[in-house]
Write a structure and sequence with these properties.
elongated, mainly alpha, 4 helices
Length: 109
């Protein structure tokens, strides 16, 4: 029986590269929110902030793409799927840099 993840296609890599960080971002964001609410409820109620920023959670979610990228290139030898994951990971990294630069320019102003 063929596994659903046994495909060698750039489009499949792009799909994995988009879905995995998106799902992981929302799971980690909720996890950080509830941990902060449990440990420091005043921080959330008064300032609407958590211990870890959304940009940091976004970076952690992007990092998990690298694990899947390595899995597809080394273990399964699916080069096209790895290329799709690499393209999306690179684009998401540029988005992260843009977010951080925007935060930096707001601090400077």
């Amino acid at each position: 029986m063929k596994n659903i993840f046994d495909r060698n296609s750039v489009w499949f890599g792009i799909l994995i590269g988009l879905l995995l960080p998106s799902i992981l971002f929302f799971i980690l964001k909720k996890l950080v929110y509830y941990i902060t609410l449990w440990t420091e409820p005043v921080l959330i109620q008064a300032y609407q902030k958590t211990f870890i920023s959304d940009a940091s959670v976004f970076l952690i979610a992007i990092f998990f793409n690298i694990i899947f990228f390595r899995k597809y290139l080394k273990n399964n030898d699916y080069e096209l799927t790895g290329r799709g994951i690499l393209v999306i990971t690179t684009l998401l990294t540029f988005v992260f840099i843009a977010i951080k630069m925007n935060m930096l320019t707001q601090i400077i102003k």
